[in-house]
Amino acid sequence: MTGGALPRKVAVVGAGDIGCGWAALCASAGWPVSVFDASARGLERASQEVPRRTRALVALERATQGIVERGLLEFAQARSLLQAVQDADWVIEAIPEDVIAKQKLFESIEQVAANDTLFTSSSSGIAPADVFARCRRQDRCLVAHPLNPPELVPLVELVPAARTATSAITRAQDYLRSLGRMPILLKKPIAGYVVGRIAASVWRQCIDLVLQGVIDVDDLDRAVSLGPALGWAAAGPHLTYHLAAGDEGVTVFLQQLLGSFEGWWAQLPTWHKLEPEQQRALIQSIERAYRGKIPELREARDRRLSAILRALEQSRTT
Ligand SMILES: NC(=O)c1ccc[n+]([C@@H]2O[C@H](COP(=O)([O-])OP(=O)(O)OC[C@H]3O[C@@H](n4cnc5c(N)ncnc54)[C@H](O)[C@@H]3O)[C@@H](O)[C@H]2O)c1
Fold it and tell me: Could you report the per-residue pLDDT of 260-282, keeping only the tens digit for each?
């Protein structure tokens, strides 16, 4: 838990998948949260989605009912940006990945927010200096990139800009830890940040194997989920390899296997565009593999995710 003060109110701007997830997470901790969306339909959807996703956390044993209901009593849909942002100590932006739209939004937020409000962007990969380019006070701004769904996956990437103050980073870390998140800090901005780059490189290889006819989508997904990803959930790739060659650790691992890896690296796909016919083939293969309805598939995924999180928490030693 944090030693710092908790926010009196959080404002979430943009009530899509990610905004609703942030709002559900804050409400599940009993924090007052106000949501604003530029579209009336978006706001209407949030009024259903946020309570649904917040209460789902109780069923998934990720939150307690009393706190959730207290948080939901203070969950509000704002009719304007001003109404959402005023009195908020933390503004979370979650509008689409469009740099100009984000710049304009933060310019407007700055005009109505209090002086000491923290601003974070949910961007998945845009340089923070670009996201906050139109803000006069960039010292209180940084990217806090969640993973989907934000109310379940604990990792959040913090990506400060050159002008972000250390105190803003610390404050974001405190808030996120109070929400049970695990913030990681990038030492310098890089396109796609760290998580996006890892996901993009693994996914390109996965797509390539499917499109080349090496393996079907369902077996490929199993190969990742029950193969490297299962191991990586217990120990990241470097620790995994450090433990993979006896007691001598990574030195021996490199002696034994670097040559093989170098051979494979030389053959990995390097394409950076998926042509329309390849997109069609990929969509067809995925839809053939997963015929269920999306909400049901998502619910089952969330059940597995919370079971994994529970197991990890129970076995945590540090
Ligand atoms: N979807 C993911 O898996 C994921 C994961 C991590 C981060 N992100 C990032 O989070 C952000 C939001 O993604 P999403 O998937 O929730 O998008 P989305 O399209 O589902 O939702 C965006 C919402 O923002 C609203 N909006 C658009 N312009 C607005 C404005 N100026 N003011 C207020 N509301 C506005 C839209 O009406 C919409 O409801 C993006 O930057 C995205 O890259 C997405």
Answer: 999 999 999 999 999 999 999 99
Give the pLDDT means over successive 10-residue stretches in the chain (318 positions).
Answer: 75 98 98 97 97 97 96 97 96 98 98 97 97 97 98 98 97 98 96 97 98 98 97 96 94 97 98 97 97 93 96 83
Domains of the chain: 10-191 (3.40.50.720), 196-314 (1.10.1040.10)
CB atoms within 10 A of CB 113: 25
DSSP 53-75: HHHHHHHTTSS-HHHHHHHHHTE
Q: How far apart are CA 13 and CA 36, in angstroms?
A: 5
H helix and E strand count, the chain: 14, 8
Q: What is d(CA 204, CA 198) in angstroms, rounded to the nearest whole number?
A: 10
Cβ contacts of residue 235 below 8 Å, gap of 6+?
Answer: 243
Give residue 131's pLDDT. 98
Helix, strand, or coil (residue 12) = strand
Centre of ligand 1 to C-alpha 94, Å, is 5
- The token duo for 136 is 């006069």
Residue that is written with structure tokens 């780059």 in the block: 197
d(CA 24, CA 49) in angstroms, rounded, equals 8
Protein residues whose CB sits closer than 6 Å to any atom of ligand 1: 13-19, 36-39, 42, 94-97, 101, 105, 122-124, 145-146, 148
- Do the beta carbons of residue 32 and residue 55 sit within 8 Å? no
Residue 7, φ and ψ in degrees, nearest 5: -70, 140
Contacts 24+ apart (CB under 8 A), 277-285: 278/207, 278/211, 281/211, 282/207, 282/210, 282/211, 285/210, 285/216, 285/217
The predicted pLDDT at position 317 comes to 63
pLDDT for 1: 40
Distance, CA 185 to ligand 1 centroid (Å)?
22
Contact (Cβ atoms closer than 8 angstroms) between residue 82 and residue 66 = no
